[in-house]
Design a protein that fits this description.
The chain has helices at residues 10-13, 39-45, 48-59, 64-77, 83-92, 105-116, 118-132, 146-159, 194-199, 217-227, and strands at 138-143, 182-184, 207-213. With 228 residues, it is mostly helical.
């Protein structure tokens, strides 16, 4: 069974040569590996509408159209090849955020997710990780982006049988529902406290969810029979 290839650490994010961060000037790359489409490719080749869609859908950037238009204008003068130049272009058309978050944050996040196909990687990784758990094993996931957290939430709710039943008009409802394979350990996402975010500011957007693999019903019955 193959694991997801999307693995990244703070050390990689802070490495200017990897091109993930707008805090350091470096080549605009953002690839977890060394193959495939880079962020430079995206910002210099995508049509304006497609680029705006990436920023809006994956970065939840409300000013996606304005930013995409600025990128298209800038790349007509010269290709955008560094994180510093891209960040400057974005900041030039965005007002300062009262919260102190850099205006380039959501756009850089969107490009990184697109370059590495991260959302599909998360779905694959969840399936694989859950499939490896033995009864009593626990799967704990920390997401740092709302889109990621929605995927984790949906997966865990479905695994624990926390989904709506079929319509009463659906004949499939007569077949009954399969017993859930997992039990939710977190009824809602756990978030860091103030003390943790002060020590580690990157934890401010973290959302933790967990579930536990249940023993198959047949084994539960067997164990109950032995206890009697």
């Amino acid at each position: 069974m193959a694991w997801s290839s999307t693995c990244v650490s703070s050390f990689q994010l802070d490495d200017p040569g990897r091109g993930f961060s707008f805090r350091f000037d470096g080549p605009l790359d953002m690839r977890m590996g060394k193959h495939g489409t880079s962020a430079t490719d995206l910002v210099n080749t995508l049509p304006e509408r497609a680029l705006a869609d990436v920023l809006f859908e994956l970065g939840e950037e409300r000013a996606s159209c304005r930013i995409a238009r600025a990128i298209i204008t800038a790349r007509q003068e010269a290709p955008i090849e560094t994180t510093g130049r891209l960040a400057t272009i974005i900041r030039s058309v965005m007002p300062r955020d009262p919260s102190g978050i850099d205006p380039a944050t959501r756009s850089f996040q969107a490009l990184r997710i697109k370059v590495n196909d991260e959302l599909h990687q998360i779905e694959d990784a969840l399936e694989q990780a859950a499939g490896l758990l033995a009864p009593g094993g626990k799967l704990v996931v920390v997401a740092f982006h709302s889109l990621e957290d929605r995927i984790v939430k949906r997966f865990m709710n479905e695994a624990a049988g926390r989904t709506g039943g079929p319509s009463r008009h659906d004949p499939g409802g007569l077949l009954g529902r399969e017993a859930p394979r997992f039990r939710l350990l977190t009824s809602r996402a756990l978030r860091p406290g103030r003390g943790e975010t002060e020590i580690n500011p990157r934890s401010r957007s973290a959302r933790l969810r967990a579930l536990e693999r249940l023993m198959p019903p047949a084994l539960q019955e067997h164990d109950r029979g032995q206890d009697q």
